[in-house]
Specification:
The protein is of the alpha+beta class and 1037 residues long. Helices cover 17% and strands 33% of the residues. The protein has 18 helices and 65 strands. The strands form 16 sheets. Strands 3, 6, 7, 8, 9, 10, 11, 12 and 13 form a 9-stranded mixed sheet that branches. A 6-stranded mixed sheet has the order 17-15-16-28-32-29, sandwiched between helices. A 5-stranded mixed sheet has the order 4-5-21-26-20. The radius of gyration is 33 Å and the shape is globular.
């Protein structure tokens, strides 16, 4: 289409609205350039007869509704003010999850890869090539003879920092009328678009061009056989075809506000969730805000608009369906309702269940697929029977009586009403900055086993509880019948990207760099039934305020067990903590809060099967750990969180007492130091040392033989107070780094714990010895520290990166080192002079760097890409692409590189040809770390995974295509890091010498832990304390 102005023809369309017929989009000067380009492309593809740019004025809306009434698409309801009834084609009544897809380059970007022969329940992926074919089969000329409406809209208050913008083109006037209710449209939005704000491109068509080839049902245009709702998160696009139902056609709703917005939120560090938002005020005037996630038809709108049964309590509604939440500058999570209206399920809504909703929908409302009364009103199941003289018409348009075998209203019939009409709308519902969230509530429709309410132990446990949500299926999608379905976070149909990454994003909220005040997390279940009578145990509706009261008080608790008792699944209310005064009927509180062991054993078993089959290698370690802890608690029927259980060869010991931060070494702690079995010949053996998420360090000896290789346990040690992040080995020492900000040292010659190094403010992310004289450490604080292995003094502390130091590597000569960080820099360090030698801007955050054995090249890893650099030119000589984020790399020889990603596989690349010469499945879960060693002319690759296994793989370097599993051991822990230790030739100290050494060190215990000492030095025989003046901290600009 030409971009030259060819003319404008203004005329009235069949609906009486001002339409624009044109040959060039340049004829509509009101459209900003980006919008014009989008609409121009849509016009070229869909070939509409007319284009109408929606302004959102009341007069325009009235014209559109009048046009629909004239066509027989809607009917005005005379009993109410400006209310309308639409009846859809019976084949177009709900979200079509099976035809809703996410289009990405790689399947794993959209959904986890399920187990073989199992269909994913966490979304549908479509390849880019298949999508292009599907689009070509649907959209060309799909609007022929129809008007294309252009709807500029805002999700959220227009001036809110959380608001996002969209432009939808559609050929459905029903969509125009409904989007005018559900979103903010008009001049303010167009002004924002004119300023160049980013917007989501939404393209929708009912798929019935004119003239029609077949008659419509209920004058409702749709094309059920070709329905497709496609989301392209990378380009922020939504394309919907064939359905006029709101969930499929109002693209600002679930498509934008959840699927696409969740991707935007992941990129920008906030949350887009399927949650209501309510404000609750106690009789003393104190107010809190809760966000709550429920699957459809679980009482979400009823809760958002609750009329509390407790005297003096007040609930106000911010939103009933979707919450966008972002941390403010004070670390408080704030939420907005991105929608402008309510799109609620009608059946079950009544004056008894939700009187505020009934008042909200009394005017300016679009009803869809409800029953109609002969006096011009609406009716559905759950309302009081109409007067005897009133005749009912069902959603098919047929006469209906109470003894009919069919329902009068479709189970998924809807009302669409402006939120501002709600009589209890919160005064801050349109606040630009949002409302502060004190609690997040998960819930579902569970007839048995799940108590009325419980609080999670902590944030990560809360994320696990959200991931474990299950509920009876609803009519909001095309599922039939009532079955218990997994619905994590009530987002199962709405994830815009891989669910495993979604969980990791939630977990990352706890480790934000900035100040964070995390909401407390709860789970509720209003729907537990008496197994004898099949009746609900809890009255629900306004009585749910009694549960909210307990949650309200728990948010302000001063002690962990205030009004609560610990159970195997979380904190339950103490007896009497739920206010039952004034309940209309007697409630069996014992049955409501029973936690049956057999039920939860089955629940944990089914949850493990679900997560294993559906999420697999993408399941975050913390969620796997929470599941394992639940299984252990239920198995032991204990009311405390089970400790990690092992059979340690180390004796159990207490952790070191806390000390003030300083740059210092904490010497051997004889009260916590024990000796491990000593070996007489250490010069010719290999040990594998691995760290874990459970804070444990494992030591295994590799025992080769001609018949069978064995991996024998040597020690286990509870090394840190947080998960391990790094391990390094020299001839004498092992060093481990952790999220607890310390480096722990172990003398492998004497088999004793040697002490701790404290200097980093944040996770110690990487460690490497060079020679026998020094240790390098890098951390989240951006520091690179150089430690002497003789005195364990911090010789140098350098601000290496403005962000985190993510990886470092020392040149085989010991004279150079490389480091990468989250500041997009690759730095070279002169270890002789202890200064920076070279800085390269690589324009991306790298997370791994490694020198080759000969030192003539090095590799840098950024996500799933590995660049090969030449030392001589300091330039890239080759690039390898991996199918997943690369987690570990290891040179087998100078030209052979083993690469492992966030999956189960290891690939070996020839760096000369840059081709993969060997690929094998190493583990059942993601490979976390690798190391290697040579023994008897064999190259042995050691791999560790969060499936708990350490495995040895044999390579013949002359024929590296062949790989063989030598041996394996299951640590039963989630492994995070790995190193191979080979001792210096020579004998260890005898047991007597070790005991004498311990005695000497014991005499220095009190001085050693004195907070006035800033550094501890070790001489040959005894601990020597040195004072060190405080240095003023330099502010890093």
């Amino acid at each position: 289409m030409s971009c030259r102005l060819l003319g404008v023809l203004r005329r009235r369309d069949s609906f009486g609205t001002a339409a624009v017929g044109f040959r060039s989009l340049a004829s509509i000067p009101s459209l900003p350039q980006g919008v014009a380009e989008f609409v121009s492309g849509a016009v070229a593809e869909c070939n509409p007869a007319k284009v109408h740019v929606v302004t959102g004025t009341p007069e325009e809306t009235a014209d559109i509704l009048a046009g629909m009434e004239q066509e027989g698409m809607v009917k005005k309801l005379q009993k109410y003010k400006n209310c309308w009834l639409a009846r859809t084609d019976p084949k177009d009544v709900a979200r079509v999850e099976s035809k809703t897809v996410v289009v990405t380059r790689q399947q794993r970007d959209a959904v986890p890869i399920p187990s073989s022969n199992i269909k994913s329940q966490l979304g549908n992926w479509m390849s880019e090539s298949d999508f292009l074919k599907a689009r070509e089969d649907r959209f060309p000329a799909c609007m022929t003879g129809r008007t294309m409406y252009v709807i500029p809209f805002s999700m959220g208050p227009v001036n809110s920092s959380l608001a996002k913008f969209g432009v939808q083109v559609t050929d459905s006037p029903y969509v125009v009328a409904s989007m005018g209710i559900m979103t903010r449209t008009g001049t303010p939005v167009m002004e924002k678009l004119a300023q160049g704000v980013e917007f989501v491109r939404c393209q929708h068509s009912v798929g019935r061009p004119l003239p029609l080839k077949a008659p419509l049902v209920n004058q409702w245009p749709c094309n059920p056989e070709k329905v497709l709702i496609a989301h392209l998160p990378d380009s922020r696009q939504i394309l919907s075809f064939g359905s006029g139902y709101g969930g499929n056609s109002l693209l600002g709703k679930k498509c934008f506000a959840l699927r696409i917005a969740s991707c935007i939120a992941k990129d920008e560090g906030w949350l887009a969730e399927h949650m209501l938002i309510l404000g609750i005020t106690n009789p003393q005037g104190v107010k809190r805000y809760f966000a709550a996630a429920f699957p459809s038809a679980c009482g979400k709108t009823n809760l958002a608009m609750m009329k509390p049964a407790l005297p003096g309590w007040k609930v106000e509604c911010v939103g009933d369906d979707i919450a966008w939440m972002k941390f403010d500058s004070q670390g408080k999570l704030r939420a907005i309702n991105p929608e402008n209206g309510f799109f609620g399920v009608a059946p079950g809504t009544s004056v008894k269940t939700n009187p505020h909703a009934m008042k909200t929908i009394s005017e300016n409302t679009m009803f869809t697929n409800v029953g109609e009364t002969s006096d011009g009103g609406v009716w559905w199941e759950g309302l009081d029977p109409p007067e005897p003289n009133i005749i009912l018409t069902d959603w098919h348009g047929k006469s209906w009586k109470s003894d009919s075998s069919m329902l009068c209203a479709h189970p998924n019939s809807r009302f669409c009403a402006p939120a501002a009409q709600c009589p209890i709308i919160d005064p801050l519902w349109e606040s630009d900055e949002g409302v502060p969230i004190d609690a997040i509530i998960f819930g579902g429709r569970r007839p048995e086993g799940v108590p009325l309410v419980y609080e999670t132990f902590n944030w990560s446990h809360g994320v696990f509880v959200g991931a474990a949500m299950r509920s009876e299926s609803t009519a909001a999608a095309e599922h039939k019948g009532k079955v218990i379905m997994h619905d994590p976070f009530a987002m199962r149909p709405f994830f815009g990207y891989n669910f495993g990454d979604y969980l990791a994003h939630w977990l990352s909220m706890e480790t934000r760099k900035d100040t964070t005040q995390l909401p407390k997390i709860f789970h509720v279940n209003w729907f537990r039934k008496d197994p004898q009578t099949n009746s609900f145990l809890w009255p629900g509706f306004g009585e749910n305020a009694r549960v909210l009261e307990w949650i309200f008080h728990r948010c302000g608790r001063t002690t962990e067990d205030e009004a609560a008792k610990k159970s195997v699944i979380g904190w339950l209310p103490q007896e009497g903590a739920i206010n039952t005064k004034g309940l209309g009927k007697k409630v069996d509180m014992g049955a409501l809060f029973d936690v049956p062991k057999t039920f939860w054993q089955k629940e944990a078993h089914e949850l493990r099967a679900y997560l294993t089959q559906q999420v697999g290698a993408d399941l975050p370690e913390q969620v796997e750990g929470e599941l394992r802890a639940l299984e252990e608690r239920v198995k032991n029927r204990t009311d405390i969180i089970a400790a990690f259980k092992m059979d340690p060869l180390y004796l159990k010991h207490d952790h070191q007492e806390s000390v003030k931060r300083g740059s210092r070494f904490l010497g051997s702690r004889t009260e916590s130091r024990t000796c491990i079995k000593s070996f007489s010949n250490m010069g010719d053996h290999v040990e594998v040392v691995a760290g874990s998420y459970e804070q444990i360090v494992f030591g295994y000896r590799v025992c080769p033989s001609e018949e069978e290789w064995r991996i024998e346990p040597v020690f286990t040690h509870h090394a840190h107070t947080a998960s391990l992040s790094a391990v390094a080995a020299s001839e004498q020492f092992i060093a481990t780094g952790s999220k607890d900000e310390t480096i722990q040292l172990y003398d492998m010659r004497t088999r004793t714990e040697h002490g701790a190094l404290l200097h980093h403010n944040g996770t110690v992310s990487c460690l490497e010895f060079y020679g026998t004289s020094h240790l390098l450490s890098g951390g989240e604080d951006g520091l690179l520290c150089v430690w002497s292995t003789k005195t364990w003094e911090c010789l140098k502390s350098i601000k290496a990166h403005m962000g985190h130091v993510t990886s470092l590597s020392v040149h085989p000569s010991g004279k150079l080192a490389l480091s990468v960080g989250t500041d997009k820099k690759l730095r070279t360090w002169n270890l002789v002079d202890g200064r920076s030698a070279f800085v390269k801007n690589i324009k991306q955050d790298a997370h791994l760097v490694l020198w080759s054995p000969d030192g003539d090249k090095y590799v840098v890893v950024v996500q799933d890409k590995l660049d090969i650099y030449s030392l001589e030119s300091a330039s890239i000589t080759g690039t390898l692409a991996y199918q997943k984020r690369i987690s570990s790399i290891r040179f087998l020889k100078n030209t052979l590189l083993a690469v492992a990603g966030d999956d189960e596989y290891v690939k070996v690349y020839d760096l000369i040809s840059e081709k993969c010469i060997c690929e094998f499945r190493a583990h059942e879960n993601r490979v976390k770390a690798m190391d290697s060693f040579l023994i008897d002319e064999l190259c042995v690759l050691v791999t560790a995974s969060n499936d708990g296994f350490i495995k040895l793989w044999k390579f013949n370097l002359e024929n590296p295509e062949v790989v063989c599993l030598l041996s394996q051991v299951n640590t039963t822990a989630r492994l995070t890091c790995l190193s191979v230790w080979r001792p210096k030739t020579g004998k260890e100290l005898s047991a007597e010498q070790i005991t004498q050494s311990a005695s000497v060190l014991s005499t220095e215990k009190e001085a050693l832990l004195s907070p006035t000492n800033k550094r501890v030095r070790i001489s040959t025989e005894r601990v020597v304390l040195k004072e060190e003046k405080k240095k003023k901290k330099r502010r890093v600009q």
